[in-house]
């Protein structure tokens, strides 16, 4: 009995579940992976929309369409299975190649098989980056040859020799760190198929500017010589290397490749030193203040999003200033200057608030970190709860903060505590300061002694902008020294054994989780779609809530919900799009915190909204559609909106024309800007006009309005084209309008009106977040479909040709068609 031989069958075997010979090469290799959701305190780091890479790669990746990835720090990864081949008598020999990381990595430490850590025993090294190991418990039936990815590494000769000529010595996997595995079939060792390997390793060797004597540091590191670089767990150094570019064989293969002169060295050095500071532990000893362990995967996302989990390992901020990038680690700083109320200048709009909104504050932080003690699976750190802040807020304000690159539960607690405390220092604003403070940079701490407010507070400079008059506009956020304070007495134990998944005494997730499309009644008597989620009612008193994530099918990002009644076994989710496909999964929140797992995703197709029988009155509907459209009045005079009691205003008008005795062509433009203490308004009108005589005229007019006041905001654009001859006019007008009010009301309107001497036709779309509508006005409406057409409104189900009042004709099926007559 042996391994599967042919390459084609092997590919099928890996994807499917084909069993040939000794190994069942199928889904067992795929395994069950860990998906780490990554979120930050709301608005704290101003996160951008992004794809979410995993902090630890526990899914085996197959195929060629796999993004580049780099391993930072000490972490576990399943890697990318790039090659496999059987050979020998009865195909008893299997060669496997797992790509682990881009670039030159430091070493392989252990391998996890079936959830158990196996010791690797070094057998030999070639002195050029290849080390051969045996695996604990597998005797002579398994060998691992680790190639560290250094420049010029040789091909794996054993793999090439047993590749059935598919590989040559030119196939070096250049610039890639990889593990080449040889397995010799034995029915006792491999009765359940080939092992599922998870590789524990020390990742990418990094350049450390602190150790470069030619760049102001001390040591032999050189930016252009990877042989001088070293492995590190320092997240600031990881971030610097990613931004400057991950190097393989002398080429940047991952990262934006920012030149060193655009990386503000002093900030990266300071942040790296903060990360290396030691923190005392309750059990004795110390650990670095901030460490990073992360598999950074190339995604179709901005590099700022990709590096955000690394920045989060130090409760930090990425600073961007005039195209250069710096780093601010979570640590108290020395105030660089003391300012008073007299330092503030009258300039652009000033904004100041002594408090944050409830969506910007938190008093409870929950989340997970990557736990080496649990085989680099996700584990929950103890919840960070401020009783005084919760009493001040009058309600729990919970935030999920998953730390996908943090390998320490105590470090996770420090970060969560700092992020919570940051939201309790609430004073913030945007101000203009005099040019004597030009030296201020983002990240600086300053002291503000205010006679007006009667206090002295510390603030962090969040942004800085130079103005034309050499003043600066800065955004300030209150800080204090308590934010980053920590002692071993603050540390809470990490729960692992008692609540580990698989312990029969504890739940790790909900049971029998399912999703069902349902319809619920609306106030109008109509029915709208919803999804009912159910699970086995929870009787475990340690379970506080069911956590639910949902997303549209094929979407990457998921949204999280919380149901605080796990004992009822049901939750109705009613904010779905009609006819859309969704998928849901669930887990649990517990006290005390213990490791939990997610259910598998379950998909559901939601239904369409349905109207009750008899609710459609076609005469009323037609009249309503007609009422939505009014005759078009061409814009001939500029009548811009104004603000009463405006404190500042600006008006600019431009007008040009050329004319002959009987013809004229003109262009007119007017802009008006106005502000008061509570309102801002910007309007613009452009008119192009051509005229011959008194009766022939063509005009194109565009009017735009943007208004914001204490009640909300409005944006509107009106485009009108018209043509007139001998007193007859044809015109088309398009209106786009968006409205948002502070009481939560929203609306979006788009309308096209066609006016021919007062006869109106058009269409209008409207959505206020609760009700949406689409109106058509015309004598004769024809809808042709290119595929089969079926119509089901709840009140009307058409399966064959149908006439309604000799005004509406339906033809579903082949050659589908809808005709509507006035």
From TrEMBL:
* InterPro entries noted in UniProt: GpJ_CSF, J_dom, Viral_Tip_Attach_Protein
Per the database record, which ranges form the Tip attachment protein J central straight fiber domain? 731-786
Enumerate the spans annotated as Tip attachment protein J domain: 303-462
Q: Tell me where on the tree of life, at the top rank, the source sits.
A: Bacteria
Name of this chain's protein: Phage tail protein
Q: Which organism is it from?
A: Labrys neptuniae
Taxonomic lineage from the root? Bacteria, Pseudomonadati, Pseudomonadota, Alphaproteobacteria, Hyphomicrobiales
């Amino acid at each position: 009995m042996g391994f599967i031989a042919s390459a084609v069958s092997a590919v099928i075997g890996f994807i499917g579940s084909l069993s040939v010979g000794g190994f069942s090469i199928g889904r067992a290799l795929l395994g069950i992976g860990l998906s780490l959701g990554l979120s930050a305190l709301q608005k704290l780091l101003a996160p951008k929309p992004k794809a979410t890479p995993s902090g630890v790669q526990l899914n085996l990746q197959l195929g060629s369409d796999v993004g580049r990835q780099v391993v930072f720090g000490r972490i576990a990864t399943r890697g990318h299975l790039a090659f496999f081949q059987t050979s020998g008598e009865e195909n008893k020999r299997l060669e496997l190649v797992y790509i682990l990381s881009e670039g030159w990595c430091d070493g392989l430490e252990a391998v996890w098989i079936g959830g158990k850590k196996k010791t690797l025993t070094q057998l030999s090294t070639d002195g050029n980056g290849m080390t051969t190991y045996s695996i604990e418990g597998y005797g002579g039936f398994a060998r691992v040859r680790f190639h560290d990815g250094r420049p010029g590494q040789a091909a794996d000769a054993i793999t090439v020799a047993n590749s059935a000529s598919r590989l040559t010595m030119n196939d070096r996997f250049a610039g890639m760190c990889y593990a080449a595995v040889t397995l010799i079939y034995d029915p006792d060792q491999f009765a359940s198929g080939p092992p599922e390997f998870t590789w524990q390793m020390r990742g990418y060797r990094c350049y450390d500017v602190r150790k470069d004597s030619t760049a102001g540091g001390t040591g032999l590191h050189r930016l252009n010589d990877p042989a001088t670089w070293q492995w590190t767990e320092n997240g600031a150094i990881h971030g610097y290397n990613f931004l400057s570019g991950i190097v393989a064989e002398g080429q940047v293969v991952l990262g934006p490749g920012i030149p060193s002169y655009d990386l503000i060295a002093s900030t990266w050095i300071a942040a790296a030193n903060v990360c290396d500071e030691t923190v005392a532990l309750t059990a004795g000893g110390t650990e670095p203040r901030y460490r990073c362990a992360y598999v950074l995967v190339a995604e179709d996302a901005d590099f700022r999003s990709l590096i955000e989990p690394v920045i989060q390992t130090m409760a930090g901020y990425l600073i961007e200033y005039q195209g250069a990038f710096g780093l601010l680690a979570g640590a108290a700083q020395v105030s660089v200057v003391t300012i008073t109320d007299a330092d503030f200048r009258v300039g652009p709009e000033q904004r100041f608030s002594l408090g944050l909104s409830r969506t910007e504050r938190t008093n409870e932080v929950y989340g997970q970190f990557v736990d080496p003690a649990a085989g680099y699976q996700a584990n929950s750190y103890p919840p960070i709860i401020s009783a005084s802040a919760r009493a001040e807020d009058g309600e729990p304000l919970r935030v999920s903060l998953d730390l996908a690159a943090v390998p320490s539960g105590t470090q996770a607690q420090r970060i969560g505590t700092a992020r919570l405390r940051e939201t309790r220092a609430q004073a913030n604003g945007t101000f203009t300061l005099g040019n004597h403070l030009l030296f201020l940079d983002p990240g600086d701490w300053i002291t503000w002694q205010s006679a007006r407010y009667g206090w002295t507070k510390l603030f962090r400079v969040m942004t800085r902008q130079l103005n034309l008059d050499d003043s600066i506009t800065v955004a300030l956020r209150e800080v204090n020294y308590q934010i980053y304070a920590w002692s071993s007495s603050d540390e809470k134990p990490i729960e692992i054994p008692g609540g580990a998944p698989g312990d029969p005494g504890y739940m790790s997730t909900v049971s029998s989780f399912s999703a069902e499309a349902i319809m619920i009644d609306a106030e109008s008597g109509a029915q709208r779609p919803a999804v009912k989620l159910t699970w086995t009612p929870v009787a475990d008193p340690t379970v506080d809530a069911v956590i639910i994530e949902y997303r549209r099918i094929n979407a990457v990002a998921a949204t999280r919900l919380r149901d605080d009644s796990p004992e009822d076994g049901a939750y109705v989710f009613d904010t779905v799009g009609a006819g859309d496909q969704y998928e849901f999964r669930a887990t649990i929140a517990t006290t005390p915190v213990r490791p939990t797992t997610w259910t598998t995703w379950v998909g559901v197709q939601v239904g369409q909204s349905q109207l009750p029988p008899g609710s459609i009155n076609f005469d009323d509907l037609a009249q309503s559609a007609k009422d939505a459209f009014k005759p078009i009045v061409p814009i001939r005079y500029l009548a811009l909106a104004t603000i009463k009691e405006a404190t500042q205003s600006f008006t600019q008008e431009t007008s040009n024309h050329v004319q002959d005795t009987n013809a004229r062509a003109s262009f007119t433009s007017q802009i008006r800007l106005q502000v008061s203490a509570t309102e801002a308004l910007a309007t613009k009108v452009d008119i192009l006009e051509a005229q011959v005589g008194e009766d022939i005229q063509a005009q194109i007019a565009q009017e735009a309005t943007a208004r914001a006041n204490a009640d909300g905001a409005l944006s509107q654009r009106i485009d009108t084209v018209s043509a007139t001859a001998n007193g007859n006019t044809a015109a088309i007008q398009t209106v786009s309008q968006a409205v948002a009010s502070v009481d939560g009301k929203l609306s979006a309107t788009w309308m096209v009106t066609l006016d021919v001497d007062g006869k109106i036709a058009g269409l209008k779309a409207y959505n206020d977040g609760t009700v949406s509508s689409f109106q058509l006005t015309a004598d004769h409406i024809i809808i042709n479909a290119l595929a089969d057409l079926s119509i089901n409104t709840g009140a009307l189900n058409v399966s064959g040709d149908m006439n309604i009042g000799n005004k509406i004709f339906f033809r579903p099926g082949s050659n589908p068609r809808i005709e509507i007559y006035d």
